[in-house]
Amino acid sequence: TSLDGQVSSSTLELTLNPADEGRRLTCRAENQDLPATTKEETHILQVLYPPEVQVSAGSSLDLNNIKEGDDVYFDCHVKARPEAHRIIWRFNGSELRPNSSAGVMVVGESLVLQKVSRGRAGRYSCEAINTQGKNSSHPIILTIKFSPVCRVEQTDVYGVGRNEKTTVTCRVEADPPVNSYRWAFNNTGEFVDIPPAAYDIKEDKMLGQRSDLRYS
Length: 216
What we know:
- This protein has 216 residues and is an all-beta fold.
- It folds into two domains: 49-144, Immunoglobulin-like (Sandwich); 147-215, no CATH class.
- Helix content is 0%, strand content 49%.
- It has strands at residues 2-4, 7-9, 24-29, 39-44, 49-57, 72-81, 86-91, 94-95, 104-107, 110-113, 122-130, 133-136, 140-142, 146-150, 166-175, 184-187, 190-193, 199-204, 208-215.
- Strands 7, 8, 11, 12 and 13 form a five-stranded antiparallel sheet that branches. The chain has a four-stranded antiparallel sheet with strand order 5-6-10-9, with no helix packed on it. The protein has a four-stranded antiparallel sheet with strand order 14-15-19-18, with no helix packed on it.
- A hairpin with a 2-residue loop joins β1 (2-4) and β2.
């Protein structure tokens, strides 16, 4: 507070945060000798701040039971002043652009993934930008259940000599993981099952699950 002749002034320094948005700040001047001359002025606080961002799955989705072919959508929730002028969706850290032919659409602040394949599994986040800065949400993890498929990086043809022993490997991808394998000989359209004692199931940290058949 300072006094200058007949003029007095008071300065208030505040550190504001987004929770102060819309609060009323009142300055009241009083003179005990002249109580009827009290004056006051009120201001509504407008706090400028960078976006606060959260991402959530659509309310009707069960993220624990998404299968190939399902439609998935995420909502980006943004709180900012001024309003965010741009929202960016990211998949595994890279910008995800709308692509209707690939089933990727952005509708308002929502991301829509149509008929998802297992390749869409991963981390999704949204980023919002305004004049005060930019921020990203914590990622949300999408897992997609799918039937077993053979991995491409495996041997299809084995050359084996008479009375020679070898190991034939079958590598697959699946979610949830495969819990059983069936091996069989295919001779002129007839399947002859191989006893389970001849093969086993192993976990490979680099290449995933596999079954090895010992053949002789």
